[in-house]
Amino acid sequence: MKRKGILVVVSGFSGAGKGTLMKNLIKKYDNYALSISMTTRMPREGEMDGREYFFVSKETFEEKAKQGGLVEYACYCDNYYGTPREYVEAQLEMGKDVILEIEIQGALKIKEKFPSALLLFVMPPSANQLRDRLAGRGTETQEVIDKRLRRAAEEAEGIESYDYIVINDDLEVCTKELHSIIFAAHNAVDRNEGFIENMRQELNVLVKGEK
Ligand code: 5GP
Predict the structure, then answer these.
(1) C-alpha distances in Å from residue 76, one per residue of 38, 81, 106, 155, 201
(2) Which of 76, 137, 144, 168 best tests ligand 1's pocket when mutated (most atoms within 8 Å of CB)?
(3) Does residue 155 line the site of ligand 1, with CB under 6 A?
(4) Residue 16 pLDDT more than 90?
(5) Percent of the chain with pLDDT over 70
(6) pLDDT, mean of residues 183-211
(7) Is residue 85 within a helix (H) or strand (E), and if so which, with residue range?
(8) Ligand 1, atom 15, residue with closest C-alpha
(9) Whose CA is closest to atom 21 on ligand 1?
């Protein structure tokens, strides 16, 4: 039986360490493909076009969305972010588990369009640690940090829409946990309906042959 890829949505508060976690997951295990989003926000220091994001103008983004080239998109803290369609579809077809590191509005749209998507939410061990991590990054102004904390408080209200939470305290432990959840999800009954139906039919044939 050909193993089908799962669409895995990973959300979490800005500063929860999702980016590092995703990079580690991809490095440790080879069945993942990380989707690179398109955004209208400016690159941060150290970010490269085509690696962290495809950095584009508002016009280019809107054009891509209009052409149906994005699986989902959302506006987050005054910027657009969206998931390019082509890569996601090709990787799923190849049996890869495709990771979308996206915020909650996008996650909900994915769940609507792809009911068998797996939704994971990464949390810091405490709210204070989140604040410290955001400040420690040193790339954001106080105004942006405050905005992201307010946004985190709003997002916390939507966690019940997700399937699992993962607490990012220790990077290695968290990476393993994330992988285990995705690994187990492949065996969920509703992701194996074809196999189960086939088994039923084969069993029926065997049972009839017995008579
Ligand atoms: P940042 O500016 O910190 O890189 O990302 C801000 C937020 O946008 C994060 O919560 C991130 O997960 C989310 N994000 C990144 N790419 C996408 C995307 O393609 N679609 C949506 N809906 N959110 C995204």
Answers:
(1) 13, 7, 10, 11, 48
(2) 76
(3) no
(4) no
(5) 99
(6) 93
(7) helix 85-93
(8) 102
(9) 102
